[in-house]
């Protein structure tokens, strides 16, 4: 039996339950912001919250492990790819609730920056900081994404989670948020984000647009363009990972087409056809050097996904 047979058989099995949403042996690089990564043995693409819940419920019932992929930021996919089923979340519906206390509801696959821009177009304030966040709503809720002094924990009302107990709305207070973490990311609760609801404020289109333009300009001036995973490491207490990496003399260090950015040292750039193993080597170099020079352990903000043991 060749190494493509098992994925094809599994894909055929899942197609009985989930139809043409199932594909076998799919390159994941185009689905990540870094444009890096090997193939998924099996990928299931979902286009609504209900399809997402159905796919996850089916996989759980069959005892199959899976990985959820939204916007593809904050992840580094192994060159060897992913043996678990990959659920590609393309559930992107966004709805607004106007009034004295406006809100926005979005499915987990919606791009967070798009939610922010849509709010701005309606003269609704509160999520301007998210206009430059590249990932999905689900990923942002999962990892407590933040920028410019705010974060998900500050503006989230509730998130609909699918856990072993079924689908239910979880108020923000139950999600155990900390700096770039939550009960989901820590593994305290096993579940996935189906949708989320955020509080907004009434404003004017002009005022919201001005603030978004300001944040976008600040982001452009301080962070590199090009394919990356976003911030590589969490900032240590009272310091910044980028400053430490630069102080250690690693800014601009390159392996193959992978580079520690010359603009901001906490961003690792793919200059084309980059191997995940080269990014991983730069990660380990930065962690080792920073610990030796400054006695600080840098903790990853991104997640390593896939088979790293081959």
Structural description of this entry:
The chain is an alpha+beta fold and 310 residues long. The protein has 3 domains: 5-89, Uridine Diphospho-n-acetylenolpyruvylglucosamine Reductase, domain 2; 94-221, Uridine Diphospho-n-acetylenolpyruvylglucosamine Reductase, domain 3; 224-305, Uridine Diphospho-n-acetylenolpyruvylglucosamine Reductase, domain 1. The protein is 31% helix and 25% strand. The protein contains 9 helices and 19 strands. β6 and β7 form a beta hairpin. The chain starts with a helix and ends in a 5-residue tail after the last strand. The model has no long low-confidence stretch (mean pLDDT 94).
Percent strand? 25-35%
Counted by DSSP, the helix tally is 9
General form:
globular
Strand elements, count: 19
**CATH class membership of the largest domain:** Alpha Beta
The biggest beta sheet reads: 5 strands, antiparallel
Class derived from helix and strand content:
alpha+beta
Classify the fold: give the CATH topology of the largest domain.
Uridine Diphospho-n-acetylenolpyruvylglucosamine Reductase, domain 3
